[in-house]
Design goal:
The complex is a heterodimer of chains A (329) and B (181).
Chain A lengths: L1 H14 L4 H13 L1 H15 L12 H11 L20 E3 H6 L20 H7 L9 H17 L7 H19 L11 H13 L1 E9 L2 E9 L4 E6 L8 E8 L7 E6 L4 E5 L6 H6 L1 E8 L12 E9 L15
Chain B lengths: L3 H12 L3 H23 L2 H18 L10 H20 L8 H7 L5 E3 L5 H11 L3 H13 L3 H8 L3 H19 L2
Helix pairs in contact in B: 1-2, 2-3, 2-4, 2-5, 3-4, 6-9, 7-9, 8-9
The chains are: A alpha+beta (329), B mainly alpha (181).
Chain lengths: 329, 181
């Protein structure tokens, strides 16, 4: 089932259900394992179409202004006139309607709601101070859809898979309101602090892929250098009866490998990072797993075969640093 | 929304440094990306930050786009979602509780869908999703739309996290099987 495990990791990475540590591990895999990367791309293709059902919301104009500033002047000066595309399709329908058009009375033909022009009133109000809300049909659309949802709720939709999916939207629709906490209103302050947090955390986290064969990572090691703990995720290595896997730190600063403890038999092993290794040591070290007698090496150095090794990398290497260049307005 | 072919063409122009094409690409895709980000991040300020990051990345990486493996919009949305989910994960699983707007946005669920957007891939995905049990459909979609982790799904839906894990795994393997792609 190893391939399925890998593929599930890829799928959950794309879906977004992994924890922070698991995402780091997936991203480490992505950076060196073309097979895993292909799996991720494939899942992006499988699930990516779901974006069609996410409601488009007009961003405030300031966003483009900032992007434009970053990339330099956007030239219309040279007279580059690109062919204008056709107007957006006026035939827009809520998904639900496309699934059950024939159930609709004619007057329920939905309002036009084209992608890119559907601000949520409340958000538009809170996020953009002045300029024109592009269209307001959205609210009409929502109301009419809501009416239809009410009407449809009682219907039996036994007409195959698409109908089942439609029922699901009603389920979501019904689900969401109960999830809204009534009175919470967080202060707008604290925002910048939060924004900075991820950037800092990334540097505190090292990930190493421990493997023998480049196509088959055996363990993924995540080190949180700030909180001084480590997580080992067993990927493909199988537990051996009567023996233990032991994790080692190998550094040019030490004459012999230093034990970081036994890797448990569960999928995840989490523990405090032993020893007072500084971040540079941890960053520069090689990590290895050897197969030892049950309970670990009796002598404090590896006695069994070193099966898997790997170097640590900063997690999320692909993420561009936050640019403090643009002054906050 | 421009046709997919037009977006591919725009991205190809962007890859050559065509700023006007980039602006048109932005115009054609900004509302979709912002909608996706707002739903996951909850806060307009955060969503705006990630919008900037994502489009700058698109500007720099347009030459990496391969129309044979992705459509322009799924490529861009994947980039934006990834960053957004990284941010919410690292900000801590619990802070979603403080994000009323995320939930308010989530309440607007069924989004308008142009007929022309009903691609073959989408039809296939929907029919495969439709074959899942309703509860499993719900978690897959909630995960996609809201960017919730397994822990958050478990908490919000009051289902043990191990059950969520098993359901997700089975659902995803079923989707893979069903889509045959």
């Amino acid at each position: 089932m190893f391939e399925d495990d890998q593929d599930t990791l890829a799928a959950e990475y794309v879906l977004g259900t992994l924890s922070a540590q698991e995402r780091d591990q997936a991203e480490a895999l992505l950076s060196f394992d073309p097979g895993f990367e292909a799996a991720v791309r494939q899942w992006e293709r499988r699930l990516g179409e779901l974006n069609v059902m996410v409601e488009a919301v007009e961003p405030p104009p300031a966003v483009w202004e900032k992007i434009k500033t970053e990339i330099g002047p956007v030239g219309t000066a040279g007279g580059i006139e690109l062919p204008r595309a056709k107007e957006p399709d006026q035939e827009s329908l809520p998904l639900a309607a496309t699934l059950t058009t024939d159930l609709l009375p004619p007057e329920a033909e939905p309002a036009k709601a084209t992608l890119g022009q559907t601000p949520i009133d409340a958000l538009a109000a809170s996020s953009s101070p002045g300029p024109e809300p592009k269209k307001v049909e959205r609210s009409a659309d929502v109301i009419s859809l809501e009416n239809r949802v009410k009407r449809w709720r009682g219907m039996t939709l036994g007409v195959g898979a698409l109908a089942a999916v439609f029922a699901l939207y009603i389920a979501l629709w019904q689900l969401a309101p109960e999830l809204i906490p009534p009175q919470l209103r967080p202060p707008a302050a604290g925002m910048m602090a939060r924004l900075e947090a991820p950037a800092r955390l990334q540097q505190d986290r090292l990930v190493a892929v421990l493997q023998q064969d480049p196509t088959a990572p055996a363990f993924l090691l995540t080190l949180d250098t700030q909180h001084r703990n480590l997580i080992v995720r067993r990927v493909s290595a199988t537990p051996e009866a009567g023996r233990s896997y032991e994790l080692w730190l190998i550094s040019s600063r030490f004459p012999a490998p230093r034990s970081l403890g036994i890797v448990g038999n569960d999928e995840f092993t989490q523990r405090a990072l032993s020893g007072n290794y500084d971040v540079d040591t941890l960053r520069g070290a090689t990590y290895a797993v050897s197969l030892e007698p049950a309970g670990g090496s009796p002598s404090g150095v590896p006695t069994g075969p070193v099966l898997f090794t790997g170097k640590a990398v900063e997690s999320l290497p692909a993420t561009p640093p936050q640019t403090p260049a643009t002054p906050k307005t | 929304m421009l046709m997919q072919a037009e977006l591919v063409w725009l991205l190809a122009a962007v890859a050559k440094g065509d700023a006007a094409a980039f602006e048109r690409l932005y115009e054609a895709t900004r509302a979709k990306l912002y909608g996706v980000l707002l739903r996951i991040l909850g806060r307009p300020e955060l969503a705006e930050e990630v919008m900037q990051e994502t489009y700058l990345k698109v500007w720099k990486m347009a030459d990496k786009f391969d129309p044979t493996v992705a459509s322009p919009i799924t490529w861009m949305v994947a980039m934006a979602r990834n960053r957004a989910i990284d941010i919410v994960r690292k900000r801590g699983e619990s802070s979603i509780e403080e994000e009323p707007q995320a939930l308010a946005v989530a309440a607007e669920t069924p989004a308008p869908l142009a007929r022309r957007e009903m691609t073959e891939e989408l039809k296939r995905l929907l029919s495969c999703l439709g074959k899942l049990d309703p509860e499993k459909q719900r978690i897959v979609l909630l995960a996609y739309y809201s960017g919730w982790s397994r822990d958050q799904l478990a908490k919000k839906l009051d289902i043990p996290v191990n059950t969520i894990k098993t359901w997700l795994r089975r659902s995803l393997l079923e989707i893979r099987e069903c889509m045959g792609l």
